[in-house]
Specification:
By secondary structure, this protein is mainly beta. The protein is built from 2 helices and 15 strands. This is DUF4249 domain-containing protein.
């Protein structure tokens, strides 16, 4: 009994000694260098297009917004000869800054098969990205499919289209329900359905669809570099401690993307 009491007393002294030696350690979280982020789109359906320019925000910052003003933004259109691949004509236009970090061009419609190069000059640095616009592909039909999960039915927006044969095709989808944009990234290729009739289900486990809901789908035919960017976003594991940045098609270390894409749209009302 005496031995047990001595053991308990000794253990208590040991724990007290360790507790007295506790030290608060301050971890110095160094901010990484700020990086330029450029996001730009042109399409065959719109005549007003935008480019947003910002920088990544320091870890300790209370703000999530860091727009960059004062940039020079230009777009170059190149028409390439189908016979020998040489450039036939070139035309360049400029964007105008309409609000901090947001640049706009009006009366500009891009065309499939043409090459577009976006150039951004800021603080004595130049950044470029090029994109050749694929031809738009028609959507044959739009509706919903119903799946059962754990005894509960869930409706998913679904479209059907014909994938062109013997060529690589890449797709991105924008989904809007009752005027609200769904933020999920939907990016696909035709590796396993080249030349086939495709049913594309735009699944979102958090999206509940009800009778009378208005659904709008935009199908963007994108090039491979833009697909790699958005596929990198959707492939990132949300639980990862350090998710990787998606692969940008901009030069000089800028993040983001520039896309020239062909668009088709379809809409429906949920029944």
């Amino acid at each position: 009994m005496i031995k047990n009491n001595l053991f308990i007393f000794s253990l208590s002294l040991l724990l007290f000694a360790f507790a007295g030696c506790e030290e608060v350690i301050d971890i110095d979280l160094k901010d990484a260098d700020q990086v330029l982020v450029i996001e730009g789109n042109v399409s065959n359906t719109e005549t007003t297009h935008f480019v947003s320019i910002s920088k990544t925000v320091p870890f300790a910052s209370n703000s999530t917004d860091n727009p960059q003003s004062g940039a020079t933004v230009k777009i170059l259109e190149e028409i390439v000869s189908s016979s020998n691949g040489s450039v036939v004509t070139k035309a360049e236009r400029s964007f105008t800054e309409v609000s901090p970090g947001l640049y706009q061009i009006n009366n500009y419609r891009a065309s499939p098969g043409r090459k577009y190069t976006l150039t951004v000059e800021l603080a004595d640095n130049s950044y470029q990205a090029s994109s050749i616009m694929p031809a738009p592909i028609s959507i044959d039909s739009i509706g919903t499919v119903t799946d059962s999960f754990f005894g509960e039915d869930q409706k998913t927006v679904s479209i059907v289209f014909q994938d062109p044969p013997n060529e690589k095709n890449y797709y991105r989808y924008l989904l809007t329900v009752n005027g609200k944009a769904i933020t999920d990234v939907f990016a696909y290729n035709d590796k396993f359905n080249d030349g086939k009739k495709v049913q594309r289900n735009l699944y979102n486990e958090d999206l509940d669809l009800f009778r009378g809901d208005s659904v709008w789908v935009e199908q963007q035919c994108i090039d491979q570099a833009v697909y790699n960017y958005f596929n990198g976003i959707q492939s990132n594991n949300p639980g990862s401690a350090a998710p990787a940045n998606p692969i940008s098609n901009f030069s000089n270390g800028a993040l983001g993307y520039f896309s020239a894409h062909g668009i088709t749209r379809a809409s429906t009302v949920i029944e």
